[in-house]
Amino acid sequence: MADIDSWAPATLAAQGLGRIDETTQALIPPIHVSTTYLRDAAYELTGGFNYTRIDNPTYGQPEALLARLEGGEAALLFASGLAAASTVFLALKPGDHVVAPKVMYYGLQQWLRVHALEWGLQVEFVDASATEAVAAALKPGKTRLVWLETPSNPMWDVSDIAACAELAHRAGAKLAVDSTVGAATITHPIALGADLVMHSATKYLNGHSDVLAGALVTSVEDELWERIGFLRIHQGAVLGPIEAWLLMRGMRTLPLRVERACRSAQQVAERFAADPRIAAVLYPGLPSHPQHAVAARQMRGGFGGMLSLRVRGGEAAALAVAARVKLWKRATSLGGVESLIEHRASVEVGTTTPGDLLRLSTGLEDPADLIADLDQALGN
Ligand SMILES: *Cc1c(COP(=O)(O)O)cnc(C)c1O
Fold first, then answer.
1. Is a pLDDT exceeding 80 seen at residue 2?
2. Active-site positions?
3. Gap from CA of 85 to ligand 1 centroid (Å)
4. Is a pLDDT exceeding 80 seen at residue 338?
5. For the packed helices 81-90 and 223-235, what is the interaxial angle rounded to 10 degrees?
6. Atom 8, ligand 1: which residue's CA is nearest?
7. Closest atom, ligand 1, to C-alpha of 181
8. Quick one: which atom of ligand 1 is closest to the CA of 212?
9. 70 and 162 belong to one structural domain
């Protein structure tokens, strides 16, 4: 067996940590669909498993790989990104104070605005790209959690993870980062001081727009992590074994896919940055991005596959561009092999997203084709 400790992320992913099925020597792992496991005559569970809501052997490899890529001690898979994220908040107690971004993934923000309040959390929304705003919101001894999303939907603001981690810890709070866009290969929040990392594994980790899944990674297996583990069992928002197997297959190509998506996004951003038909390109990889310096420090090997274009001419012009694309698919979500374009303001109720904004997820097509399609869709 090669020295796995020295393996680069692409090697770890491609080889699935080098794991081989012990009983058959199969390179590709089996899918364990059984919901229940045998006890012996002494009434002991001898295989290490009991009931699939508690744990499933198909989770082992993708959880271990994700923990390894993120530099954490352990990972847990969930039925969706929102199931993973909401579990972190439900592991807190009524009355706890939480700091969260004002601009963030719409679905989670909806959850925080409705259910977190009913659960009794005191959620304070701040501009999380401004470290001083995070500092001002912290209540030492009362704030239990600071939640970041970086780069954040759909404006791609970047939060300074290391600075926020230090502030949160000084106030006695934990730092959790939704690193869905960081994709486990270009941003490593735990190395920067974060306690928890969350992924919508539906996006880059699976990468093929055919699995809904979520994941959490912890820096240490502490009491909060134990509560999160029990919540997964007791709420039952667990991933199906077939989905876990598909996720593992997707993760084998994660570094390669993310590398390509980043490169194409950078090319698209640069091509349209000074285009007169565009009012602004929002992308952390452009020197004009307000937090480009922070992004350059904490994102390695690329600035992500997500960017937004603000189209000159406002909402009607943006919708007209979306209507004219032939290659980019008009659909929600991100991180798949096919490039997606979305007019976010149309799908967010009570939105603060500008009407002229088109969110782009660059996939794996040839970037020249992607650029040519946007160019024709922008018209003259
Ligand atoms: C998609 C997404 C989520 C929610 O994940 P689901 O898998 O759809 O539940 C959370 N955060 C970000 C940044 C996302 O893109």
1. no
2. 53, 105, 178, 203
3. 9
4. yes
5. 120
6. 81
7. 13
8. 7
9. yes
Q: Do 247 and 271 reside in the same domain of the chain?
A: no
Boundary residue ending a domain (251, 286, 320) = 251
Work out the average pLDDT over 21-47: 96
CATH number of the domain enclosing 92:
3.40.640.10
User: Which mutation among 105, 110, 212 tests ligand 1's pocket best, with the greatest number of atoms within 8 A of CB?
Assistant: 105
**Residue 196 DSSP one-character state:** E
Residue 217 near residue 79 (C-beta atoms within 8 A) = no
Cα distances from 374 to residues 219, 339, 341, 371, in angstroms, run 41, 11, 10, 5
Which residue's alpha carbon is at the smallest distance from atom 2 of ligand 1?
Answer: 200
* Banded pLDDT at 114 (limits 50, 70, 90): very high
260 and 365 in a single domain? The answer is yes
pLDDT of the residue at 348: 86
| Domain match, 165 and 21 both | yes
Residue of 298, 253, 301 whose CA lies nearest to 65: 253
Structure tokens at 209: 């727009």
Range of the domain at 190: 4-251
- Looking at the structure, tell me whether residues 208 and 266 fall in a common domain: no
C-alpha to C-alpha distance for 69 and 9, rounded to whole angstroms: 6
In terms of domains, do 240 and 260 share one?
no
Q: Does residue 58 sit in the same domain as residue 20?
A: yes
Tokens of 350: 């009570």
Give the pocket of ligand 1 (CB within 6 Å).
80-82, 105, 107-108, 149, 153, 178, 180, 200, 202-203, 212, 214, 334
145-174 tens-digit pLDDT: 999 999 999 999 999 999 999 999 999 999
pTM above 0.90, yes or no: yes
